[in-house]
Specification:
alpha/beta; 16 helices; globular
Length: 389
Protein backbone atom coordinates (compact mmCIF):
# COMPACT_ATOMS: atom_id res chain seq x y z
CA UNK A 1 0.00 0.00 0.00
CA UNK A 2 1.22 3.50 -0.81
CA UNK A 3 1.86 5.45 2.38
CA UNK A 4 0.40 8.91 2.94
CA UNK A 5 3.85 10.49 2.95
CA UNK A 6 4.64 9.18 -0.52
CA UNK A 7 4.49 11.78 -3.30
CA UNK A 8 2.58 10.83 -6.42
CA UNK A 9 1.19 12.43 -9.53
CA UNK A 10 -1.78 10.63 -11.05
CA UNK A 11 -2.28 10.74 -14.80
CA UNK A 12 -5.56 9.37 -16.08
CA UNK A 13 -6.97 9.71 -19.56
CA UNK A 14 -9.23 7.90 -21.99
CA UNK A 15 -8.65 7.46 -25.70
CA UNK A 16 -11.70 6.58 -27.77
CA UNK A 17 -11.20 4.07 -30.56
CA UNK A 18 -13.47 3.66 -33.54
CA UNK A 19 -13.20 1.70 -36.75
CA UNK A 20 -15.65 0.25 -39.20
CA UNK A 21 -16.00 -3.17 -40.78
CA UNK A 22 -17.41 -2.85 -44.28
CA UNK A 23 -19.07 -5.54 -46.36
CA UNK A 24 -18.90 -5.25 -50.12
CA UNK A 25 -18.35 -7.15 -53.37
CA UNK A 26 -15.60 -6.25 -55.81
CA UNK A 27 -13.82 -3.65 -53.70
CA UNK A 28 -11.37 -2.80 -56.50
CA UNK A 29 -14.03 -2.51 -59.22
CA UNK A 30 -13.83 0.98 -60.77
CA UNK A 31 -17.52 1.61 -59.99
CA UNK A 32 -17.14 0.70 -56.29
CA UNK A 33 -16.48 3.90 -54.34
CA UNK A 34 -16.08 2.32 -50.90
CA UNK A 35 -12.27 2.26 -50.75
CA UNK A 36 -12.01 5.74 -52.25
CA UNK A 37 -14.23 7.03 -49.45
CA UNK A 38 -12.21 5.20 -46.80
CA UNK A 39 -8.92 6.56 -48.11
CA UNK A 40 -10.18 10.13 -48.49
CA UNK A 41 -11.74 10.34 -45.02
CA UNK A 42 -8.99 12.67 -43.80
CA UNK A 43 -9.23 15.18 -46.62
CA UNK A 44 -7.43 15.74 -49.93
CA UNK A 45 -3.80 15.53 -48.77
CA UNK A 46 -1.94 12.87 -50.72
CA UNK A 47 -0.65 9.99 -48.63
CA UNK A 48 1.31 6.82 -49.26
CA UNK A 49 0.22 3.22 -49.25
CA UNK A 50 2.22 0.02 -48.87
CA UNK A 51 0.25 -3.12 -49.73
CA UNK A 52 1.05 -6.76 -48.92
CA UNK A 53 -0.84 -9.60 -50.63
CA UNK A 54 -1.04 -13.25 -49.64
CA UNK A 55 0.56 -15.23 -52.45
CA UNK A 56 -2.25 -17.80 -52.48
CA UNK A 57 -4.78 -15.02 -53.05
CA UNK A 58 -2.75 -13.62 -55.93
CA UNK A 59 -2.39 -17.10 -57.43
CA UNK A 60 -6.17 -17.47 -57.43
CA UNK A 61 -6.78 -13.88 -58.58
CA UNK A 62 -3.78 -13.09 -60.85
CA UNK A 63 -5.13 -9.71 -61.98
CA UNK A 64 -5.59 -8.45 -58.41
CA UNK A 65 -2.40 -6.40 -58.30
CA UNK A 66 -3.25 -4.67 -61.57
CA UNK A 67 -6.81 -4.01 -60.38
CA UNK A 68 -5.53 -2.40 -57.18
CA UNK A 69 -3.02 -0.24 -59.06
CA UNK A 70 -5.65 0.96 -61.52
CA UNK A 71 -8.15 1.66 -58.74
CA UNK A 72 -5.71 3.76 -56.70
CA UNK A 73 -5.00 5.94 -59.72
CA UNK A 74 -8.27 7.68 -58.94
CA UNK A 75 -7.56 8.32 -55.25
CA UNK A 76 -5.52 10.73 -53.17
CA UNK A 77 -3.22 7.87 -52.12
CA UNK A 78 -0.05 6.84 -53.95
CA UNK A 79 1.04 3.21 -54.08
CA UNK A 80 4.71 3.44 -53.08
CA UNK A 81 5.69 0.24 -54.91
CA UNK A 82 4.02 -2.74 -56.56
CA UNK A 83 2.18 -4.87 -53.98
CA UNK A 84 4.52 -7.03 -51.91
CA UNK A 85 3.70 -10.73 -52.13
CA UNK A 86 4.28 -12.96 -49.12
CA UNK A 87 3.25 -16.53 -48.26
CA UNK A 88 0.33 -16.82 -45.88
CA UNK A 89 -0.26 -19.43 -43.23
CA UNK A 90 0.82 -19.77 -39.62
CA UNK A 91 4.45 -20.50 -40.47
CA UNK A 92 4.79 -16.87 -41.58
CA UNK A 93 4.13 -15.84 -37.97
CA UNK A 94 7.13 -17.88 -36.83
CA UNK A 95 9.53 -15.71 -38.82
CA UNK A 96 10.56 -12.45 -37.19
CA UNK A 97 12.36 -11.69 -40.45
CA UNK A 98 8.99 -11.11 -42.11
CA UNK A 99 8.30 -8.20 -39.76
CA UNK A 100 11.84 -6.84 -40.13
CA UNK A 101 11.43 -6.85 -43.91
CA UNK A 102 8.23 -4.83 -43.59
CA UNK A 103 9.97 -2.32 -41.31
CA UNK A 104 12.63 -1.93 -43.99
CA UNK A 105 10.01 -1.25 -46.68
CA UNK A 106 8.21 1.26 -44.46
CA UNK A 107 11.48 3.10 -43.82
CA UNK A 108 12.71 2.86 -47.40
CA UNK A 109 9.53 4.35 -48.85
CA UNK A 110 9.21 7.07 -46.24
CA UNK A 111 5.86 6.10 -44.77
CA UNK A 112 4.63 8.21 -41.84
CA UNK A 113 1.93 7.75 -39.22
CA UNK A 114 -0.53 9.30 -41.68
CA UNK A 115 0.36 6.77 -44.39
CA UNK A 116 -1.43 3.46 -44.92
CA UNK A 117 -0.29 -0.14 -44.71
CA UNK A 118 -2.78 -2.58 -46.22
CA UNK A 119 -2.88 -6.36 -45.97
CA UNK A 120 -4.87 -8.59 -48.33
CA UNK A 121 -4.95 -12.16 -47.10
CA UNK A 122 -5.83 -14.63 -44.39
CA UNK A 123 -5.48 -14.22 -40.64
CA UNK A 124 -1.77 -15.04 -40.37
CA UNK A 125 -0.75 -12.46 -42.97
CA UNK A 126 -3.07 -9.89 -41.37
CA UNK A 127 -1.41 -10.58 -38.01
CA UNK A 128 2.13 -10.07 -39.33
CA UNK A 129 1.37 -6.95 -41.38
CA UNK A 130 -0.82 -5.54 -38.63
CA UNK A 131 1.95 -5.99 -36.07
CA UNK A 132 4.47 -4.21 -38.30
CA UNK A 133 2.01 -1.36 -38.94
CA UNK A 134 1.18 -1.03 -35.24
CA UNK A 135 4.81 -0.79 -34.16
CA UNK A 136 6.51 1.19 -36.94
CA UNK A 137 6.44 4.88 -35.94
CA UNK A 138 4.35 3.62 -32.97
CA UNK A 139 1.45 3.14 -35.33
CA UNK A 140 0.67 3.56 -39.03
CA UNK A 141 -2.90 3.46 -40.30
CA UNK A 142 -3.68 -0.14 -41.18
CA UNK A 143 -6.39 -1.38 -43.54
CA UNK A 144 -7.28 -5.05 -43.53
CA UNK A 145 -8.78 -6.95 -46.45
CA UNK A 146 -9.51 -10.40 -44.98
CA UNK A 147 -9.82 -13.06 -47.65
CA UNK A 148 -10.99 -16.15 -45.73
CA UNK A 149 -14.18 -17.06 -43.90
CA UNK A 150 -12.11 -17.31 -40.72
CA UNK A 151 -10.55 -13.87 -41.01
CA UNK A 152 -13.70 -12.14 -42.29
CA UNK A 153 -15.81 -13.41 -39.41
CA UNK A 154 -13.26 -13.45 -36.60
CA UNK A 155 -9.52 -12.80 -36.69
CA UNK A 156 -9.52 -9.98 -39.21
CA UNK A 157 -12.17 -7.86 -37.52
CA UNK A 158 -10.62 -7.57 -34.04
CA UNK A 159 -7.97 -5.40 -32.40
CA UNK A 160 -5.13 -7.90 -31.97
CA UNK A 161 -1.93 -8.39 -33.97
CA UNK A 162 0.77 -10.91 -33.12
CA UNK A 163 3.61 -13.15 -34.17
CA UNK A 164 4.83 -16.38 -32.59
CA UNK A 165 8.03 -16.73 -30.55
CA UNK A 166 9.69 -19.19 -28.15
CA UNK A 167 7.41 -21.94 -29.46
CA UNK A 168 4.37 -20.03 -28.20
CA UNK A 169 1.55 -18.75 -30.34
CA UNK A 170 1.02 -14.96 -30.35
CA UNK A 171 3.78 -14.37 -27.78
CA UNK A 172 4.73 -11.00 -29.30
CA UNK A 173 1.93 -8.66 -30.26
CA UNK A 174 -0.12 -5.54 -29.79
CA UNK A 175 -3.66 -4.38 -29.27
CA UNK A 176 -4.08 -1.89 -32.10
CA UNK A 177 -7.42 -1.26 -33.79
CA UNK A 178 -7.20 -1.11 -37.59
CA UNK A 179 -8.08 2.03 -39.51
CA UNK A 180 -10.73 0.00 -41.36
CA UNK A 181 -11.63 -3.57 -42.29
CA UNK A 182 -13.12 -4.33 -45.70
CA UNK A 183 -14.74 -7.74 -46.16
CA UNK A 184 -15.07 -8.38 -49.89
CA UNK A 185 -17.21 -11.43 -50.60
CA UNK A 186 -15.44 -11.93 -53.92
CA UNK A 187 -12.30 -13.04 -52.13
CA UNK A 188 -14.16 -16.07 -50.80
CA UNK A 189 -14.58 -17.33 -54.35
CA UNK A 190 -10.81 -17.72 -54.55
CA UNK A 191 -10.66 -20.14 -51.63
CA UNK A 192 -10.10 -23.86 -52.22
CA UNK A 193 -13.03 -25.98 -51.13
CA UNK A 194 -11.00 -27.29 -48.21
CA UNK A 195 -10.60 -23.77 -46.86
CA UNK A 196 -14.07 -22.35 -47.35
CA UNK A 197 -15.50 -23.93 -44.22
CA UNK A 198 -12.63 -22.94 -41.92
CA UNK A 199 -14.40 -19.90 -40.50
CA UNK A 200 -17.57 -21.79 -39.69
CA UNK A 201 -16.08 -23.08 -36.44
CA UNK A 202 -15.46 -19.61 -35.01
CA UNK A 203 -19.07 -18.73 -35.82
CA UNK A 204 -20.22 -21.83 -33.94
CA UNK A 205 -17.95 -20.79 -31.06
CA UNK A 206 -19.32 -17.28 -30.71
CA UNK A 207 -22.88 -18.61 -30.97
CA UNK A 208 -22.16 -21.09 -28.18
CA UNK A 209 -20.85 -18.46 -25.78
CA UNK A 210 -23.04 -15.47 -26.70
CA UNK A 211 -26.04 -16.17 -28.94
CA UNK A 212 -28.04 -19.40 -28.86
CA UNK A 213 -30.29 -18.24 -31.70
CA UNK A 214 -27.26 -17.86 -33.95
CA UNK A 215 -26.08 -21.36 -33.05
CA UNK A 216 -29.49 -22.78 -33.94
CA UNK A 217 -29.50 -20.78 -37.18
CA UNK A 218 -26.15 -22.34 -38.14
CA UNK A 219 -27.68 -25.72 -37.30
CA UNK A 220 -30.56 -25.00 -39.70
CA UNK A 221 -28.24 -23.71 -42.42
CA UNK A 222 -25.79 -26.62 -42.29
CA UNK A 223 -26.76 -28.10 -45.67
CA UNK A 224 -26.55 -24.71 -47.38
CA UNK A 225 -23.23 -23.96 -45.69
CA UNK A 226 -21.80 -27.31 -46.76
CA UNK A 227 -22.77 -26.43 -50.34
CA UNK A 228 -21.10 -23.01 -49.86
CA UNK A 229 -24.31 -21.20 -50.66
CA UNK A 230 -23.29 -17.51 -50.89
CA UNK A 231 -26.28 -16.17 -48.95
CA UNK A 232 -25.75 -18.63 -46.09
CA UNK A 233 -22.00 -17.95 -45.97
CA UNK A 234 -22.46 -14.19 -45.99
CA UNK A 235 -25.04 -14.39 -43.22
CA UNK A 236 -22.73 -16.53 -41.08
CA UNK A 237 -19.73 -14.24 -41.62
CA UNK A 238 -21.62 -11.02 -40.97
CA UNK A 239 -23.27 -12.22 -37.76
CA UNK A 240 -20.04 -13.80 -36.52
CA UNK A 241 -18.18 -10.52 -37.12
CA UNK A 242 -20.96 -8.58 -35.42
CA UNK A 243 -20.89 -10.75 -32.30
CA UNK A 244 -17.10 -10.60 -32.05
CA UNK A 245 -17.18 -6.81 -32.34
CA UNK A 246 -20.01 -6.55 -29.79
CA UNK A 247 -17.83 -8.41 -27.32
CA UNK A 248 -14.77 -6.26 -28.01
CA UNK A 249 -16.70 -2.99 -27.70
CA UNK A 250 -19.11 -3.99 -24.95
CA UNK A 251 -17.19 -6.28 -22.60
CA UNK A 252 -15.46 -3.43 -20.79
CA UNK A 253 -12.06 -5.04 -21.46
CA UNK A 254 -11.25 -4.68 -25.18
CA UNK A 255 -7.49 -4.91 -24.60
CA UNK A 256 -7.81 -7.89 -22.22
CA UNK A 257 -6.28 -6.27 -19.17
CA UNK A 258 -8.16 -8.75 -17.00
CA UNK A 259 -7.90 -12.51 -16.94
CA UNK A 260 -10.93 -13.48 -19.02
CA UNK A 261 -10.91 -14.27 -22.73
CA UNK A 262 -14.31 -15.80 -23.52
CA UNK A 263 -13.73 -15.44 -27.25
CA UNK A 264 -10.98 -18.03 -26.80
CA UNK A 265 -13.41 -20.82 -25.89
CA UNK A 266 -11.71 -24.05 -26.96
CA UNK A 267 -8.47 -22.26 -27.75
CA UNK A 268 -6.21 -23.32 -24.89
CA UNK A 269 -5.92 -26.77 -26.42
CA UNK A 270 -6.18 -25.50 -30.00
CA UNK A 271 -3.12 -23.29 -29.77
CA UNK A 272 -1.07 -26.15 -28.37
CA UNK A 273 -2.36 -28.59 -30.98
CA UNK A 274 -1.27 -26.27 -33.77
CA UNK A 275 2.27 -26.36 -32.38
CA UNK A 276 2.28 -30.11 -31.66
CA UNK A 277 1.23 -30.82 -35.26
CA UNK A 278 3.82 -28.37 -36.64
CA UNK A 279 0.79 -26.52 -38.00
CA UNK A 280 -0.43 -29.49 -40.00
CA UNK A 281 -3.74 -28.63 -38.37
CA UNK A 282 -5.07 -25.26 -39.44
CA UNK A 283 -6.31 -22.89 -36.78
CA UNK A 284 -9.94 -23.73 -37.56
CA UNK A 285 -9.30 -27.48 -37.41
CA UNK A 286 -7.48 -27.15 -34.10
CA UNK A 287 -10.22 -24.94 -32.64
CA UNK A 288 -12.86 -27.54 -33.55
CA UNK A 289 -10.96 -30.20 -31.59
CA UNK A 290 -10.33 -27.82 -28.68
CA UNK A 291 -14.01 -26.92 -28.55
CA UNK A 292 -15.04 -30.58 -28.63
CA UNK A 293 -12.69 -31.23 -25.72
CA UNK A 294 -14.17 -28.38 -23.67
CA UNK A 295 -17.76 -29.32 -24.57
CA UNK A 296 -17.24 -32.84 -23.20
CA UNK A 297 -15.40 -31.47 -20.18
CA UNK A 298 -18.30 -29.04 -19.51
CA UNK A 299 -20.78 -31.92 -19.72
CA UNK A 300 -18.78 -34.27 -17.49
CA UNK A 301 -18.27 -31.52 -14.91
CA UNK A 302 -22.05 -31.16 -14.65
CA UNK A 303 -22.29 -27.73 -16.29
CA UNK A 304 -23.72 -28.67 -19.70
CA UNK A 305 -26.65 -30.95 -20.42
CA UNK A 306 -25.92 -34.20 -22.26
CA UNK A 307 -28.37 -33.42 -25.07
CA UNK A 308 -26.80 -30.01 -25.67
CA UNK A 309 -23.33 -31.55 -25.77
CA UNK A 310 -24.49 -34.18 -28.27
CA UNK A 311 -26.07 -31.53 -30.47
CA UNK A 312 -22.94 -29.37 -30.45
CA UNK A 313 -20.60 -32.22 -31.34
CA UNK A 314 -22.96 -33.41 -34.07
CA UNK A 315 -23.12 -29.96 -35.64
CA UNK A 316 -19.35 -29.62 -35.79
CA UNK A 317 -19.07 -33.03 -37.43
CA UNK A 318 -21.83 -32.22 -39.93
CA UNK A 319 -19.90 -29.11 -40.90
CA UNK A 320 -16.98 -31.40 -41.77
CA UNK A 321 -14.70 -30.90 -38.77
CA UNK A 322 -12.75 -33.82 -37.33
CA UNK A 323 -12.88 -33.86 -33.53
CA UNK A 324 -9.72 -35.83 -32.86
CA UNK A 325 -6.03 -35.70 -33.73
CA UNK A 326 -3.37 -38.21 -32.58
CA UNK A 327 -1.44 -35.39 -30.92
CA UNK A 328 -4.20 -35.17 -28.29
CA UNK A 329 -2.62 -38.29 -26.83
CA UNK A 330 0.58 -36.35 -26.09
CA UNK A 331 -1.15 -35.37 -22.90
CA UNK A 332 1.79 -33.96 -20.96
CA UNK A 333 2.69 -31.64 -23.83
CA UNK A 334 -0.96 -30.74 -24.41
CA UNK A 335 -1.56 -29.82 -20.79
CA UNK A 336 1.38 -27.44 -20.92
CA UNK A 337 -1.07 -25.39 -22.98
CA UNK A 338 -3.02 -24.64 -19.80
CA UNK A 339 0.09 -23.17 -18.16
CA UNK A 340 0.87 -21.15 -21.26
CA UNK A 341 -2.73 -19.91 -21.36
CA UNK A 342 -2.50 -18.82 -17.72
CA UNK A 343 0.85 -17.13 -18.34
CA UNK A 344 -0.50 -15.35 -21.42
CA UNK A 345 -3.48 -14.05 -19.45
CA UNK A 346 -1.35 -13.01 -16.50
CA UNK A 347 -1.59 -14.91 -13.25
CA UNK A 348 -4.87 -16.70 -12.64
CA UNK A 349 -6.02 -19.36 -15.07
CA UNK A 350 -9.36 -18.45 -16.62
CA UNK A 351 -11.01 -20.81 -19.10
CA UNK A 352 -14.47 -20.41 -20.64
CA UNK A 353 -16.77 -23.42 -20.43
CA UNK A 354 -20.46 -23.85 -21.24
CA UNK A 355 -23.53 -23.88 -19.01
CA UNK A 356 -25.77 -24.22 -22.04
CA UNK A 357 -25.95 -23.26 -25.69
CA UNK A 358 -25.40 -19.51 -25.78
CA UNK A 359 -24.18 -19.40 -22.16
CA UNK A 360 -20.46 -19.34 -21.56
CA UNK A 361 -19.01 -18.94 -18.08
CA UNK A 362 -15.56 -18.87 -16.51
CA UNK A 363 -13.70 -21.38 -14.38
CA UNK A 364 -10.30 -20.97 -12.78
CA UNK A 365 -9.35 -24.60 -12.45
CA UNK A 366 -9.24 -27.48 -14.91
CA UNK A 367 -8.94 -31.09 -13.78
CA UNK A 368 -6.22 -33.13 -15.46
CA UNK A 369 -8.30 -36.28 -15.02
CA UNK A 370 -11.29 -34.53 -16.60
CA UNK A 371 -9.23 -33.52 -19.62
CA UNK A 372 -7.84 -37.05 -20.01
CA UNK A 373 -11.36 -38.50 -19.82
CA UNK A 374 -12.57 -36.11 -22.52
CA UNK A 375 -9.61 -36.99 -24.75
CA UNK A 376 -10.39 -40.69 -24.39
CA UNK A 377 -14.00 -40.10 -25.40
CA UNK A 378 -12.90 -38.19 -28.50
CA UNK A 379 -10.52 -41.03 -29.38
CA UNK A 380 -13.29 -43.60 -29.09
CA UNK A 381 -15.67 -41.46 -31.15
CA UNK A 382 -13.02 -41.17 -33.86
CA UNK A 383 -12.48 -44.93 -33.92
CA UNK A 384 -16.20 -45.56 -34.15
CA UNK A 385 -16.54 -43.14 -37.07
CA UNK A 386 -13.61 -44.78 -38.87
CA UNK A 387 -15.14 -48.23 -38.36
CA UNK A 388 -18.48 -47.05 -39.74
CA UNK A 389 -16.99 -45.76 -42.99
Amino acid sequence: MIQNNEAAITCRFEVPFEFQVFFTEGVFDPDNDLLREVLSSDGERRERLLTVIDESVLAAMPTLSDELTAYLAGTSVDLVCPPIVRPGGELLKNQSAAVTQLYGLIECHGLSRQSFVAAIGGGALLDVVGFAAATAHRGIRHIRFPTTTLSQGDGGVGVKNAINAFGKKNFIGTFAPPFAVINDSRFLNSLPLSGKAAGYIEAVKVGLIRDADFFFEIDRLTDALNQFDPAAMHRLIRRSAELHLEHISGSGDPFERGSARPLDFGHWAAHKLEQLTSFRLSHGEAVAIGMALDVIYSRDAGHLGASDATRILALMQRLGFALFAPELLETDALLVGLDEFREHLGGELTVTLLQGIGRGFEVHEISRDGVLKAIEELRKRDRALAAAR
